[in-house]
Amino acid sequence: MLRAMSGEAAPATIDTSRQDQAIAANAAWLDLENPSEQERAEVERATGLELPTHDEVSEVEASSRLIVTGNVLTLSTPAISHGEGDRLVVSPLGFVLTPTRLVTLRYAPSQVVDKFATHWHAPGPCAGMEPFLGLLEAMVDRMADGLEREGALVEKLTGAVFGPAMAERQSRQRDRFLRETLTQVGRSGERISHIRDGLLGVLRIVRFVRQAASWAEPPQGKRLTTLENDIVSLNDYETQLIGKVQFLLDATLGFISIEQNNSVRTLTVVSVVGIPPTLVAGIYGMNFKIMPELEWKYGYAYGLVVILLSAVLPWVWFRKRGLV
Description:
The chain is α+β, with helices and mostly antiparallel strands. It has helices spanning 21-26, 37-47, 54-57, 62-65, 111-119, 129-162, 164-168, 171-212, 218-284, 299-320, and strands spanning 2-5, 12-13, 29-33, 66-69, 72-82, 88-97, 102-106. The chain is built from ten helices and seven strands. It is rod-shaped and about 115 Å long.
């Protein structure tokens, strides 16, 4: 899909079969979502720009993500979009930025791009830097909101794991709760990792554009500086948050290990307590012809008492040591 935005009216969806070259040529921002070859060719003819391919915007090395050719900047970064449930999906987002135009190439639906494109308006003629900066600011705001949600979730899980309600749960309930918590912590760590990738990608772009876009206006340069400071502060918060996630992950695994050790300890005590009675019963269950105890009047009672004592004495020993 190809949309054209001038900043003065609502976005216009371009039908390449009608050859809307006038709209594409006059647009300040052209947004291509999963573009076809025909749409790519239409934009290249209308703008005279060479657009990067999907493989090129997917490159991970900085030299391939940040390219300057005269006044044309070709940039790319991982972009975050929502998948099924609470999962985040990372896909490449490409920018072709000139003093008069912005072209974006994306390969997954993006709520932040769609929302910004719908509400973005600028009075009078608009250069390419304006929608570019606005889009980056919207992306950073969305990632900041994501970090805030993850921070609130981590605080909630921490309170649940270390709170008094944890000790009040039955063993089976506690085991189920810890396993569910472990899953939530793992998913939270995954989402934070994706947000960190997005922040680092945008930070590299902002710093590169500050140096390479000599044609940017002073107010635009100030916005780039503000963006850089915001991302740096978010990176600091993300580092602190990922530390909390790691601590919570270790603590949850530790509690699960304790629960497993308790189960193993209980089984060990039961097996140790059960061995002596089994041994005594086995001895007096042997079918030998000559066994002195067979002639005793109280031999049966004697055997029962020995079996009982052989079970009770180990149990008392374990209790005194606090193992049961």
